Amino acid sequence: MKKKLIEIVDSISKKKIVEIFLDLINVNTVFLNYHRVLSDLEFQNIYRPNNDLVVSKKVFENQIIYLKENFEVISINEIHQKKNNKRRVVITFDDGYFDNLKNALPILEKYNCPATIYIATSFLDNKVTPWWLLAWKIISSQKQINFNDKILKISEKEDKKNCYEMICRELISLSKNSQDIILNNLTDNNTIEENNVKEFLSSKDLIDLGKHDLIEIGCHTHTHQNLKTLDKEDIHNEIINSKSILEKIIKKKINHFSIPYGSKNCFDDKIIEQLSAYNFKTIVTTEHDIFRKNKCNRIPRIGIGNQDINGRFHSKAIGIDSLLNKILKR
To answer: Average pLDDT for residues 306-323, to the nearest whole number?
Structure first.
């Protein structure tokens, strides 16, 4: 039923009646949330458990072309300005992947599109591998693993995918220490090959991005933990450490913040209140909702993946998809 409703909304998202409805409820700016932009070859040749947080260069460029033709792509610093009557989108990237610089930036430059990149500072210079990459690295290289004292057979791709999704559901709600214990247990007696792939930005990369006219650098905490698993002091340290590192590297004040994971299971009103005390101009989430200019400490964003083309992409960019998801409580 939900899937059918989404298909119907996608099919009518370009109709004038949708525009009129969105105008009535004052929806004119939508925040899009990207993570990775892979080369077309890498996208085709490397198996992943899902493509929800990944787009190929070809799809990304087509999405940017569509946005430029049908929307006004604005900087996060322009959200309080009214420039013309076009609907507006803000492009954001989370985590600080190197491919944001290598693959996404040339396309953003080509079409003169601004974007904000939120950095989890412990990932800089590839010093730390995030748990979601490490978990997939383990699962993809093994035929079986020991998880919660159970031996799971994962020789087939579908088994690996299901196993990864199950482990992610558990790890996202745990503290970093608990995550590390589980991941260490997964790797017991299993040899994981090291690779020299540059997954994340280096400090030098960040200096270059910080000087770029189209790029705004934002804070995404230091270790990318679920804020609900932390006490107030730990949250404070996550913010201050990350903000300090970023400001020291790019020699600019950090005005924007992205909540790790960003869903309602990873923060609450008290955490928003604490985050607001750091005087960030904006705080973004991944909640489904309508952007309100008077509520910049809790801005909703809609995630963009490789399947978001045609009516699906328009539905997300115009804001009707996020509104529908809020109603459906997805």
So the answer is: 92
Sequence length of the chain is 330
Q: Does some domain include residue 103?
A: no
Q: Is residue 181 part of a domain?
A: yes
- CA end-to-end span of the chain: 13
Could you tell me if 222 and 245 are in contact, meaning their C-beta atoms sit under 8 angstroms apart?
A: yes
137 occurs within a structural domain: yes
Number of domains in the chain: 1
Predicted confidence (pLDDT) per residue in 172-226, tens digit:
999 999 999 888 888 655 555 566 789 999 999 999 999 999 999 999 999 999 9
DSSP state letters, 104-149: IHHHHHHTT--EEEEE-GGGGGG-S--HHHHHHHHHHH-SEEEETT
Question: 255 φ, ψ to 5°?
Answer: -110, -5
Range of the domain at 136: 131-186
Q: Quick check: is 179 in a domain? A: yes
Q: How far apart are CA 207 and CA 69, in angstroms?
A: 31
pTM score: 0.94
pLDDT at 50 over 90: no
